[in-house]
Amino acid sequence: MNQIIHPTAIIDPKAQIGNNVEIGPFSIIGPKVILQDGVKVSSNVVIDGRTTIGKGCRIFHSAVIGTEPQDLKYAGEDTAVEIGEYTTIREFATINRSSNIEQPTLVGSYCLLMIYTHVAHDCKLGGRVILANSVNLAGHVIIENNATIGGLTPVHQFVHIGCFAFIGGLSRVTQDVAPYTRGASVPYKTVGLNSVGLRRSNFSAETRATLKKLYKIFYNSNLNTAQALEKIKSEIEMIDEVKHFVEFVENSERGIAK
Fold it and tell me: What is the DSSP secondary-structure string of 58-74?
């Protein structure tokens, strides 16, 4: 098994602990926790509830995962948290389990949750999401793959943040943030494409040029949302990224931050 477990750690006998797992001093692992192979848990960590931690994850000092949701509607249901593979959760981060028995709080693979981040009940984070220090997500927030949120930024409940979006630090996000865009400030303002992120993620020059045309129509043409979408559909090649942008906007419930 090659487990390295400090003698002061408290691990319920019913917890499922994989191969090559390390658990540091004074950490507490509850009875319904699953730690898959290669998970490394530092000191003073609490992992409780029906929580599954994917293989290769690293959890740093004093993080708290799987405790009850901060939701007055919660009535003690056996809800859950699921965390993908090779995600890093830094010091004092907190992840609450869901308030809905049918769907866990989800954090994807290869994510980075920095110090003092908070992921509330029923959030769904895709893969390779980065939350910088002290980002706070309210309940039911959805963040798609490869999005980044700068430090000290709160995100309103039910907000949807699109893939490859980049949100600058010290912002306040109360509306949906469209995929492939970047912005910041209070109130939040979209200021351009996330060109650096798209280039670093190997989006082709042709795709980036198409998204630039889309951006100009949607954000800079003085058209309302419905008019802008119609113009995009009629004038721009409907590559996958354009289709996703259009569907994201059409399905937005909180409105798109402009």
Answer: EE-TT-EEEEPPS-TT-
Domains in the chain: ranges and CATH? 4-140 (2.160.10.10), 199-250 (1.20.1180.10)
Tell which residue, 124, 135, 125, has the closest CA to residue 94: 135
Comparing C-alpha atoms, which of 74, 4, 11 is closest to residue 48?
11
With tokens 């249901």, the residue in question is 77
Structure tokens belonging to residue 124: 């769904």
Q: Which residues are catalytic?
A: 121-122, 139
> For residue 20, is it left (φ>0), alpha (ψ between -120 and 50) or beta?
left
Candidates 68, 94, 66; CA nearest to 81 is: 66
Type and span of the H or E element at 215 = helix 205-220
Give dist(CA 145, CA 164) in Å, integer: 7
**Residue position matching structure tokens 């895709």:** 126
Mind listing the pLDDT tens digit for each residue in 217-227? Answer: 999 999 999 99
pLDDT for 72-104, tens place per residue? 999 999 999 999 999 999 999 999 999 999 999
Residue type, 161: I
